[in-house]
Amino acid sequence: MHKLNRMLVFILVFYISSCSVLDNKQDKPVNLVDEISDAFIKKDVHLFFFFRDNGQEGVFLAASYDGMHFTELNGGRPIFSAPATLGDGLTRDPSVILGTDNRFHMVWTTGWWQGDHFGIAHSEDLLSWSQAKRVPVHTMDPSALNVWAPEIFYDDLNDTYQVMFASTLRSLHDKETSEIAPDGVGAEHRQYVVTTKDFNQWSDTDMFFDQEFSVIDAMIVRRAAHDYIMVIKDETLTPKAEKNLKLVYSKSALGPWTEAGPAITPKGMWIEGPSLNRIGKYWFLYFDDYAKGGYGALRSTDLVEWQDISSDMSFPRGIRHGTILSVPRERVKHLVKGLLEN
């Protein structure tokens, strides 16, 4: 079988080497071998965790070797479902990492207007999960309306796990620049954070990112030592709608962060749920094109100039707000067996 795999890769690379396609934005030849050969050689698998509809069915999983064409795994069935008693029983906005303990750790939004917790569970193989639990937040402030899109990240400098999430706290912000909340007043989101070393004891909730505009869906990538990138969604609706993605930078995963730069997403496009990943020489930024009911991606070599490659992507049907995670193929071979051959 190994000889067959090598033969297939050789044939594929040889064939593609003789062909080229035009980069739609730059209008110059691009060799497709550059897009896929690193993934085949390193045998990394790019996993994509996502939900469908309102998140009531659970968390689904897809995989890709090139970061562009994703195949759904587990027969299209959820790999995880939350108990109905945890928040509203939803599993929206799943965020997953492979921890230093070689276990997978997942956090998610349990309901639209649950202001005091997010969900968490752990797994060795992405199929069997620990009991889902709630992580309390905003314990000292009952004015919190929501806990949206918790994003888990391992801070190597402090050897801690941190979870960032968006909330509107009426006690802190009286502006109303986002959509109307259940209390009849416009929301005003900021990013908050809690940290842990063992998933048993958690820090108090702290302000994480506040640059005086409504912000949700923050996610962090470590580019190098003391070099962190965070993607955020500017959730401003009024007086001028933003609804776009921006980048900020820091020398620490806990900040402080540089001033948010200009929007990097196409003008006029309302999108959210960013997930940033480096594959070969490219940065891929995946996003939920919720206004149009689809999914898309941008690509860049320098995080400055971005190309919309959404038309070249293939995702599972109905995918919503997902998280990309690259892992060695060996770590998830029980899930992706046969994916290359197919």
Kindly give the count of domains. Answer: 1
Low-confidence parts, pLDDT < 50 over ≥5 residues?
1-41
What is the 3D shape?
globular
CATH hierarchy: architecture: 5 Propeller
Work out the oligomeric state of the chains in this entry: single chain
CATH uppermost class: Mainly Beta
Strand order of the largest sheet: 5-4-3-21
Number of beta strands = 21
Strand residue percentage: 35-45%
Helicity level, as a percent range? Answer: under 10%
Structural class: mainly beta
Task: Describe the model.
There is one protein chain. The chain has 342 residues and is mainly β. It has one domain: Glycosyl hydrolase domain, family 43 (Tachylectin-2, Chain A, 5 Propeller), CATH 2.115.10.20. The protein has three helices and 21 strands. The chain has helices at residues 2-17, 33-42, 333-336; strands at 21-22, 29-30, 44-51, 60-64, 71-72, 92-98, 104-109, 117-123, 133-136, 148-155, 160-168, 189-196, 206-209, 215-224, 227-234, 244-250, 272-279, 282-289, 294-300, 307-308, 320-328. The strands form six sheets. The protein has a four-stranded antiparallel β-sheet. The chain is globular and about 55 Å long.
